[in-house]
Amino acid sequence: MRAAAGWKDYELIDTSGGERLERWGDILLIRPDPQVLWDTPKKSPLWRQAHARYRRSSTGGGKWERYKPIPDSWQIGYGPLRFNLKPMGFKHTGLFPEQAVNWEWMADVIRSAGRPVRVLNLFGYTGGATLACVEAGAHVTHVDASKGMVAWGRENAAASGLQDRPMRWLVDDCGKFVQRELRRGSTYDAVLMDPPSYGRGPGGEVWKLEEQIYPLIEQCGRLLSADPLFFMVNSYTAGLSPSVMQYMLASLLTPRLGGEAQADEIGLPVSRGPAKGLVLPCGATAIWKR
Prior knowledge:
alpha/beta; 17 strands
């Protein structure tokens, strides 16, 4: 497993009873996590000092219980990058901190390329990967179907002082955008995507991961330039294992482009409590590299 161990403003403090206790800057939050199947003692007093806890509803969804005042939004940083956070529906804050391990990897590859690099980021959410690649020197096209998420990404770019770097922020259905790019003959040196299990595009288009991920990877593979750097796919869907993701990239890209595909879980180290030293699995990443 690859762990995002470089955080200072974020900390996974403890895990127990289906929940994780996290520090986001100065704000302590308790959020549910289906991977936390153990019920070890919650000895840390920080469990009782949390600002808010997300409670799931038996009828679906859930809500935040606030114990202390929380600002409408606040910021945390990762190196030179700054991110605006806020408690959202379905337990999210607008950032997946485990992805920092992928930000570091992509930034290293881009800096080492020694040439201009064009990156396509599909299902780009609030722009963590986009900003990491731009800060490393790439030109990034960021695509997401949510107008609100794209606006949030722009805010993060401004907070990071990167608003004048070469970026395109597009509200679009990712599949349709890729098809148009193929017709236009566009190419990219790297492609990354973080597709949801289920979703809808801006025009009501339905996305089902199991039905559409393989043809989307095939189409995106044809957008790679003559000298590509990498192709990355992230997944938070339990049914899409790292091995399956690795095989899809290997079967679609390696015969034509060479290189190799690999995949692994990514996670967050637990800093305190009985689970100290554990790396909590938080998803999977498959990478094809030249």
